[in-house]
Amino acid sequence: MSTVAIITARGGSKRIPRKNIRPFLGKPIIAYAIDAALHSNLFDEVMVSTDDEEIAAIARQYGAVVPFLRQSKTSGDHASTIDVLLEVLDEYELIGRTYESLCCIYPTAPFITSQLLKTSYELLLEKQVDIVYPLQQFSFPIQRAFKLNSGIITWADPNSFLLRSQDLEPMYHDTGQFYWFNVNPLRQHQRLANLTAGGIVIDEMHAHDIDTEDDWQIAEFKYRLLHNMHSYD
Questions:
Q1: What's the whole-model pTM score?
Q2: Would the pLDDT of 229 be above 90?
Q3: Element (H or E) spanning 126, and its range?
Q4: Residues 49, 51, 54, 57: is their CA dihedral positive or negative?
Q5: CA distance 70 to 91
Q6: Residue-wise pLDDT tens digits, 114-140
Q7: Quick one: 64 exposed, middle or buried, by C-beta within 10 A (0-12, 13-18, 19+)?
Q8: What is the SS3 assignment for 66?
């Protein structure tokens, strides 16, 4: 199957300015995603979709291609990931290149490995689903969540408080690292809601969502632990 890795890295990050190319333990954070994709040997092309010339230059430095810059309509705060992916597919079709599957990889996901990409791609093929998500289990049963309104709490699901924790069904959330897609269903539905989905579970040490400065520091700490790195700060 023909495959493409699309690393989505616009320039206008708000909460952590220039987050997609900020140094993470010595190199731009986007470099980790590029390196994992290249070393997986899964892809006919590893490309970065960006509207930013500096990001494009760094992406090329680390081995990705940037055959075109993102359009203004897919560069704003309200553009969805699906909008970006469809734009990339359309641009490639204009030069006569089509793909059967794609992997959308986020640039601030330094815990991605080549093996994880391979395992999730095998699941996409084996289960014949439209999309594969990387997942983590909630560390506390969300069935026992509280609602808070003006200082007063109520149970989200009162029946769950009568059950033992081990009797509650495990629940999972998206890690926000990457997504594998079959291209034809993606093009047909143009949204996630109608796609059949599979999931691969990742433990808490191998993923971390990075949205704040605290998230960044925790992610670096976890990465050091995983890779036996020492801090000399």
A1: 0.93
A2: no
A3: helix 114-127
A4: positive
A5: 10
A6: 999 999 999 999 999 999 999 999 989
A7: buried
A8: coil
